[in-house]
Amino acid sequence: MLTAIHSRFGNPADVLEVREADLPKPAAGQIRVKMVMASIHNHDLLTVSGDYGYKPELPASAGTEAMGVVDALGDGVTHLKVGQRVAVSGAGTWAEYYLAAAAMAVPLPDGISDEEGAQLISMPLSALVLLDFAGVERGGWIVQNAANGAVGKALALFAKPRGINVINLVRREEAVSELQALGIDHAVSTSEDGWREKVSTLTGGARIGAAIDGVGGSSAGDLLSLLGEKGLLVSFGLMSGRPLELSASDLIFKEAVVKGFWLSKIAPRLGPEKLMALIGEIIQGVTAGEIKLTVSEVFALADIKQAVAAAGESARKGKVLLRA
User: Fold this and answer.
1) What distances in angstroms separate CA 125 from CA 96, 220, 267, 285, one per listed residue?
2) Distances from the Cα of 73 to the Cα of 26, 31, 67, 88, 117, angstroms
3) Coil, strand, or helix at residue 47?
4) Residue 239: its pLDDT value, please?
5) Mean pLDDT value across the chain
6) Whole-number pLDDT of residue 88
7) Residues forming beta bridges with residue 169, ordered by sequence position
8) Domain span including residue 74
9) CATH number of the domain within which 135 lies
């Protein structure tokens, strides 16, 4: 079988290779999945480059989310069957076949397409947990940057039925219309003159209780400047690759709080029942067409170098996927 692997850390387009590997055998409690489609997430690229929160042992198989068809069952697995479509978030999913914990496999209903199933868990789940983490009540305001990213779009859409208002900051004027086409309002391009005044107009001067930063650098400082008294700034991404640039006066005089968010650390503390309830909400939203998981391009696994290069482009309108 073919698998995407890297033997050193660096630019994913340089260090990733597609190699032949032995077909893995599922251990007790595991399943083997024949990959149909897999997502390329920002954290996948950061892991390959060696800039993420953990470094795998090398050589390492890449990828953390995919959907496919159950191909084999390990001992003790009785709730799944061979031939069943599932989505799984785990390690080494950029491969024709991969192993996954059976308990974490999400059966996919017919109403979920392969393209949606391949990106069903990681980003939407991050968005839902971020909403709870922000602690903003119904009628309150959140501001987020990178709003046209997968997490940003999902967060804005999940916030609507909760009655939480979201200011969605993007860096391109074109991205405003892209969000509006998905039913996401309150979108503001920071490339426009007077964008801060536009934010104030949209909120009617109401206090912004939380800010969600996926960019870092000066963009984090922009969010902090918009926060109200005792507001919360959540750092969950580093698209700019730069440290947070925050105003000491904003921190001090607003009594602002800054917290880091990493789903890998938070999800285990939620417990399996809560996680399954959240995933059920995601499935319901996607099936109903309320949550839209968009796709930019689909590449063959053999074209991994071109795929990761495309995934690193900033002007994408959706997720880059791999197909086996």
Assistant:
1) 25, 22, 9, 12
2) 7, 5, 16, 14, 20
3) helix
4) 83
5) 95
6) 92
7) 188
8) 2-120+293-323
9) 3.40.50.720
